[in-house]
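Study the following:
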Amino acid sequence: MIYGAITNSWREQLLSHTVKELVGAAVEKGAKHIELRQTCLGECEEGAGDDWRPNLEKLQAVVDAYPSLTFDLAMALPCLTQKIDPQGEMFQAALAGAKLVGGSQPHLRVVDPSPLEGPWSTLSDIPEEALGLTSLATEAASQGVIMSMENSSLPIRDMAMLVEHVRGLVPETVAKGLGLCPDPTNQLRRFPDSDPLAELDALPLDMIKIVHFKQIAGGDSLPSVADGDLDCHKMRDILDAKGYAGAAIMEIPPHAAVFDNLESSFQYLNS
């Protein structure tokens, strides 16, 4: 796995530093991948909501400054609850940003922040709007961009059911580029009686495009990946056993000592 960081961990530092500087701080602590998250891109983004756009020139400067790193772009997009135009300016701008930062393997991670009624039991529970993923995934694939999906209000198995169904509706060349960003801790927080690691283990390897590590204790967020409610070492071992070699993001909460917390998270998972 390629251990990395995400820019929404740096909300405090972004008030006084550029993204370019903060990526350097993460590199010093051992990060090999950076997830560039909409709303936490400082000089590298403009606007908000439907008017959000990545600043391609500033993103290019960040990527050029760290040629040994890999990057992906992450955005909020209510694509499970609304029909999104794949030719719309915002989605096209996001694809352009993903291609710019992603090098030979562009990756756009999409999270629908809308609360959804769940969990889903059958395909009939999936809202019709979510099937708009077929056109979004098709457009992304036509530009060579991988798409991974996340929604914190649904279990991993529900999102897997959706992605598997959508994959069956599109050509194989499109299907292989659509997958998930599993975050077992998000699931455990919302569904404490569930077994998110078993659901992670049940995923086919090619559905896992990127993963998030974080930790809670008694339902409260911890500042770093450490011992807690989720067995993060077991999560690491499941991914290793599958042969997962992609990015593993430490989605730790903002903190004055966030870069020390990032380093301790890497050390914990390496222990």
Notes: The first helix runs from residue 19 to 28. The chain has a mean pLDDT of 96.
